Amino acid sequence: MKTEFENIPLVKNEDPKRFELSYNGHLAFIDYKESNTHISLIHTEVAAELAGTGAAAAVVEKTLMHIEESGKSLLPYCPYVFAYIKKHPEWKRLVDPKFNGYDKF
């Protein structure tokens, strides 16, 4: 991921339950839910000021790396995350095979 976001750390903000990337005072984030075995990604949102910068893809990729390091399975309910994995099928390895839509990747 050679972008302006490469060196910006992902923050797992426990209170609002979201993974965040902050750039120039603006946020890109993914809402999540977590259990002992799974992380569900619910909704991705990017500040209008970051539109077209690659911030959404960066927050998704960094979040997927975090999930992989956690050893948990992914439930990609967010349409943007689902589409990202479809475009980058190497990340399908994180998706729980019981996820409804697994066969759509």
Structural class: alpha+beta
Helical amount: 10-25%
Number of helices: 2
CATH architecture: 3-Layer(aba) Sandwich
Measured distance between first and last alpha carbons: 22 Å
Assigned CATH superfamily: Gcn5-related N-acetyltransferase (GNAT)
**Contiguous runs where pLDDT drops below 50 for at least 5 residues:** none
Strand order of the largest sheet: 1-2-3-4-5
Describe the structure.
Helix content is 24%, strand content 30%. With 105 residues, the protein is α+β, with helices and mostly antiparallel strands. It has a five-stranded mixed beta sheet with strand order 1-2-3-4-5. It contains two helices and five strands, in the order ββββαβα. It is globular, with a radius of gyration of 13 Å. The mean pLDDT is 94. A hairpin with a 4-residue loop joins strand 1 (11-13) and strand 2. It has one domain (11-98): Aminopeptidase (3-Layer(aba) Sandwich). The chain has helices spanning 55-70, 79-87; strands at 11-13, 18-23, 26-34, 38-46, 73-76.
Secondary-structure topology with pairs:
Blueprint (H helix, E strand, L loop, with lengths): L10 E3 L4 E6 L2 E9 L3 E9 L8 H16 L2 E4 L2 H9 L18
Parallel strand pairs: 4-5
Antiparallel strand pairs: 1-2, 2-3, 3-4
Question: In short, what is this structure?
Answer:
With 105 residues, this protein is of the alpha+beta class. It has helices at 55-70, 79-87; strands at 11-13, 18-23, 26-34, 38-46, 73-76.
